[in-house]
């Protein structure tokens, strides 16, 4: 059962939601209140999986409720109803910890399905909203880098930060070797392999072996492009200029004898 608390400043709407949700076999309404204070008090007294809260709660109550529940009751999900279809507004609530939202134009069936999704630790959003969230994540990553004084590094630079042994292990990971197979191939203990894998993932800034292998492949491509570029630059450099400069440096040496 998904234990649900309803928070709506309008008594009639709160009661209507309560009656309607009680018809759902997998949803249990554990309370129906009209203020943020009542909701937070009830959260202390009753186990609650999902809070269905109106975004129109007075004095930015929905934001306060979302932030407080996220801080003090991390297992409880806040689902906001009556949301306008604005990416900026929705992102603002999601950044404060909302687990989902119900648009003003959504149907009752969609509201119920979003309650179930929140109960499963999922969030039903549109593709446009997903794209906006990804863009926001990129912005936040760049902001963190700026605050930390970090610079964006290309795959070749990241790869160059690895030790020789870490490079060997990454090469075997790229070939699909397990930790046990890497240990047997390099004649090192399994625990040592795990330490090296942990360190190289940390240096590359990736969470998984498959992404580390991808960085290695991208690094090879980057190095190949750099070598080709340097070779091309050396080819087009005028030879006479180098010959003339060499003679000019040698002449004083000859005249001294």
Protein topology:
Layout: E1 2-7, H1 11-21, E2 27-33, H2 36-45, E3 50-54, H3 61-72, E4 77-83, H4 87-95, E5 100-103, H5 108-119, H6 127-148, H7 155-160, H8 164-174, H9 179-186, H10 190-204, H11 209-236, H12 239-255
Parallel strand pairs: 1-2, 1-3, 3-4, 4-5
Helix pairs in contact: 2-3, 8-10, 8-11, 9-10
Question: What would CATH call the class of the largest domain?
Answer: Alpha Beta
Based on the coordinates given, report the CATH architecture of the largest domain: 3-Layer(aba) Sandwich
Biggest sheet features: 5 strands, parallel
Strand content: 5-15%
How would you sum up this structure in a few lines?
This protein has twelve helices and five strands.
Explain what this protein looks like in three dimensions.
This protein is α/β, with parallel strands linked by helices and 257 residues long. The protein has 2 domains: 2-134, 3-Layer(aba) Sandwich (Rossmann fold), CATH 3.40.50.2300; 155-239, Arc Repressor Mutant, subunit A. The protein is 63% helix and 11% strand. It is built from 12 helices and 5 strands. The chain has helices at residues 11-21, 36-45, 61-72, 87-95, 108-119, 127-148, 155-160, 164-174, 179-186, 190-204, 209-236, 239-255; strands spanning 2-7, 27-33, 50-54, 77-83, 100-103. A 5-stranded parallel β-sheet has the order 2-1-3-4-5, sandwiched between helices. Helix 3 links the parallel strand 3 and strand 4 (77-83). The protein is elongated. The protein starts with a strand and ends with a helix. 23% of the residues are buried.
């Amino acid at each position: 059962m998904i234990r649900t608390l309803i928070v709506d400043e309008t008594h009639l709407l709160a009661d209507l939601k309560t009656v309607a949700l009680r018809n759902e076999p997998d949803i249990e309404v554990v309370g129906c209140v009209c203020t943020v204070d009542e909701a937070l008090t009830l959260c202390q007294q009753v186990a609650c999986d999902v809070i269905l809260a109106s975004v129109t709660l007075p004095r930015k109550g929905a934001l306060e409720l979302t932030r407080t529940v996220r801080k003090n009751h991390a297992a409880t999900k806040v689902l906001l109803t009556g949301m306008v279809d604005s990416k900026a507004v929705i992102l603002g609530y999601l950044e404060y910890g909302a687990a989902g939202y119900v648009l003003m134009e959504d149907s009752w069936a969609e509201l119920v399905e979003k309650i179930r999704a929140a109960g499963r630790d999922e969030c039903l959003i549109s593709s446009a909203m997903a794209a906006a969230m990804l863009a926001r994540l990129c912005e936040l990553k760049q902001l963190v880098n700026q605050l930390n004084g970090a610079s964006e590094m290309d795959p070749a630079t990241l790869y160059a930060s690895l030790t020789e042994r870490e490079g060997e292990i990454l090469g075997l990971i790229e070939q699909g070797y397990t930790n046990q197979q890497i240990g047997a191939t390099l004649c090192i203990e399994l625990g040592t392999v795990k330490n090296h894998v942990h360190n190289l993932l940390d240096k590359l800034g990736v969470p998984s072996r498959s992404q580390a292998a991808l960085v290695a492949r991208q690094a090879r491509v980057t190095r190949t492009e750099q070598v080709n570029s340097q070779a091309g630059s050396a080819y087009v450099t005028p030879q006479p200029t180098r010959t003339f400069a060499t003679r000019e440096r040698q002449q004083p040496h000859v005249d001294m004898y």
